[in-house]
Amino acid sequence: xxxxxxxxxxxxxxxxxxxxxxxxxxxxxxxxxxxxxxxxxxxxxxxxxxxxxxxxxxxxxxxxxxxxxxxxxxxxxxxxxxxxxxxxxxxxxxxxxxxxxxxxxxxxxxxxxxxxxxxxxxxxxxxxxxxxxxxxxxxxxxxxxxxxxxxxxxxxxxxxxxxxxxxxxxxxxxxxxxxxxxxxxxxxxxxxxxxxxxxxxxxxxxxxxxxxxxxxxxxxxxxxxxxxxxxxxxxxxxxxxxxxxxxxxxxxxxxxxxxxxxxxxxxxxxxxxxxxxxxxxxxxxxxxxxxxxxxxxxxxxxxxxxxxxxxxxxx
Length: 315
Hints:
Blueprint: E1 22-25, E2 28-31, E3 35-36, H1 47-59, E4 64-66, H2 75-83, E5 91-96, E6 98-100, E7 109-111, H3 115-129, E8 134-140, H4 158-170, E9 174-180, H5 184-190, E10 195-199, H6 210-219, E11 222-223, H7 243-252, H8 256-267, H9 280-288, H10 296-303
Parallel strand pairs: 3-4, 4-5, 5-8, 8-9, 9-10, 10-11
Antiparallel strand pairs: 1-2, 6-7
C-alpha cells in the first residue's frame, strides 16, 4: 500500500497536494493531516459508504491512514485492503496491544500485552490488510490513560515487548516501531529500539504530555495525538468548549473543531494528525484544517488556554 514514486515531498504519489504540508513518519514524507479509520466500524452495514470515504481521503491528499485489527475484528482493515491501491502511496499504520473482545464488557476490546499476543496481533493485521509487511506498528501500552489499565498477566515489561517487536522488524513483518499510551521515562528507555512515532492522548486542553512532546521533537519522533479534541471520555474537557477557540473560529470563518486541529499543527512541526470520521463532509472539513493559519495574537490566545487534565483516567 506504499509507493516511492512521489515527485515532491509536498504532493502525494497521485500528485495531490498534501493537506497541512509534508511531515516525516518512519523516514518518509506523509500528509500532516491524515485519517484515523476507527470510526469506519460504525459503517459495518454500509460498506460502499465506508469505501467511498477512504477513496475520498486519498483524493484529498491523505496518504497516512491509522488503523488496527481490533477495529471491528478486522472489518476496518478489510475496508482499507479493498479501497487503497499500491499506486496511492498510502502509509498504513497499525497497532497491537489489544484484541477484540465479544464478552459484552464495557469496551469491545481487551488488552493483549504479552509478547505472544503482540506477535499474534501483527499476524492478524498482516492477514486482514493483505500485506507482507506493515510499514509502522504501534505498541499500545497501558501506562497512561484514558482507556484500559493493565492487570495480572497483562502487566508486561516493555523490554519483553520490544524484544518481540524488534524481532518481527528483523523478520520483515513490520517496517518500524511506534509507541502509544506511554510515559516519557518509558519512551526514553525504548529509544535504542528506534522508535519512529508516539501516539498519546493530547489536545489544546489536555497538555500533560508537553515534556514528552519536546522529547519527540528533540529525537525526531513523529507525534500523533489521539483524542485531539478531548472530550471522548467522561471528565476530559472539550476543546470546542473553549471561548478562545470559538473566538478564533468566528474570526477565521472556521469551526471550533477545525481550530483545535489546526492549533496542533502549529504547535510543533513533528505533529501528524489522524482525525477520524465516518462522514464525508467531516472528512473534508478535517482535511481543510491544513490550510488554516493564525496571526500572532490568535495563536497567543490559543496558547494561553490552560491545560485542565494533568491525569487522564485509566480503567
